[in-house]
Amino acid sequence: MPLLHQEPPARIDDLDVLLGIAMALEAEAVLRYGQLAVLMEQRGEADTAATFRSLMAEEEVHTTAIGRWASDLGRAAPDGGSFLWLLPPDIAASWDDLVDRTRLTPYQALSLAVVNEQRAFAFYSHIAAGTGDDAVRRHAESLAREELGHAALLRRERRKAFHRQNGAAAKPARADSPAALDRLAHSLLGAAAAVHAALSERLATDGDAAGAALLAEIAREEAAVAGDGPAAHPPTDTDTDTNTGATADPWSAAIAITERLAESFADVAATATDEAVLGRALTLQETSIRHLARLASPHHSS
Q1: Max Cα distance, the chain (Å)
Q2: The pTM is what?
Q3: Which CATH superfamily is domain 15-166 in?
Q4: Residues 206-250 pLDDT 10s
């Protein structure tokens, strides 16, 4: 489970518990998508706000459906609040981080929403794989498929936001084998690390010691993940623009570079036909999104 750092606290063999977990996840999504819709409206991002309102409405339908599902099974509608403790901590922490930001682009909001839908998919998949109850397994698999559908919708909206923000559509990055992904990651991350290191020096010169330290740390992490394998130059239209930092505001340039990385690895995951490629691409995407979260910290807000 590359997107979850903590497994469910216990094996789920009780359908009532699964119902409660599903209600808790859906209710949390309704709340968070509503918060994001308001935030995007306040920032004049009507299209992104509409996407989150649509998702909120869909999640509200799901909460109603879970209540009907419980009734059909002869059970009372579950109280989601009683099952919040069973949810993956990664999901709650990233929602809190997302809605608390003072710097947040539509691309960043949608990227982290995608990751949370993927986390919910991984969570339900883990429940399905670990249970000894056939009904729990069947329903957990169905819930997992729904989360994948949400993630697919969000990925489409995220790509639209990326192109609204960065211009004409670029050819999506692809990797058909683990070796190809290693080469692509080495090239993209190596280039990004070099630019982030240079931007760190600019911030240091400008007197922003904290910002310089953060960018230097991100550069080191990118270089470490890139590794020492042979570099293969990525396609021109997915390349990290090593000139970005030359004239742009250093912080905006750092964020733009990291967004491109996240988008490239998301593209690889979306087209992956190899399970190892999918898992590795999702991990790389999450690393870039984690860096985006740090770059959007209040310390550097305007």
Answers
A1: 67
A2: 0.57
A3: Ferritin, core subunit, four-helix bundle (1.20.1260.10)
A4: 898 988 999 999 999 999 988 854 443 433 333 334 344 444 578
